[in-house]
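Inactive serine/threonine-protein kinase fnkC
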Amino acid sequence: MLLRPTVFHCFIFFKSCNHFTQRSTHFVSFIEKIMKIISPSIFNRKVEEEDLVSGTFTWRIDNFSKLKKYQHYSEVFVIGGYKWRMLIYAEGNNVDCLSLYLDAAEASTLPYGWNRYTKFKFTLVDQFDTNKSITKDLEHTFTASTVDWGLTSFIPLSELHRHDTGYLVNDVCVVEVEVSVRNGIKILEDQETGELMDFRGLVRIGKNFVPLLEEVCSSYPSLIECQMKRSRTFVQCAFTALGRVLHFLKTTKAKDMNADACQRLQLLWEELEAFKFDLAWLEPHVLSVFGMMKKVGIVNRLKEDVDILENEIKTRRAILADAEAELEVAKRNLAEAEEEYLSKIDMDSELGYPLA
């Protein structure tokens, strides 16, 4: 039982040294082989932990008291190149506690045998005093058989609903999840990168992305520098994500930026942000594209308003035309009645009364 931690600590010590002798290098290689045999899960997680990509999603739940007993899902969000959702049981999952889970979204579309080692932590936000927020850490390997994982008993419902806490304020509950996941993968299955091509001897990237990456990396060398200590798989995912964004911006015209295209760019951008590039040079341009879409949205809404008003005017004109036709009929009826009845009466004569 003592062998595993002892060997592992030796491995970490030698691995962390800046200089190796030939003998120590062989020793580290030997220890790596042992660790893979006696504790592959610990070895893999510790060695690749430096490649974890982290992100946080905040879910503001309005009208919390109106939620039924069944599960409720958040919108889909992307962290580390993967799609996620939060899952909540507001009245507990067969317990008198708030139940919170992290769900691997769209799991049915993932390839056979997929798995995803993840560290994550839930936070129930105290809206009066964030220092009193409740945070709980978990880790789990998501697979096709366990697509969601979390805490069935996060906090007793009695404590959640206490008036002297800030967990429920004006019927609003705020929960957060911070996700750390290893080696983001391609999340947009519908975008083919085509033939792979070597990129600066680092990794092989989709052929269409390479000239775009060469162009920006020549202008911004830090894009390469910040990935030098990462694993090959991580670097490939990172530059593929950057290539997708560049390719989208290069091949999409302003007239093609409809709601679907805007959502796609948003998804690509969120995926890219997870890889911690310095994107100060690109972010203002991407934000301007989203700003342009907002302006286009305003124009489209104004067009809809104009169309609605024009249709309203057409409807009212039709009603007015009918009213005018009815008016002409009424005028004719009036003229006929005046001719038939009033022409025979002396309107200036006294009404009088009969005498015997």
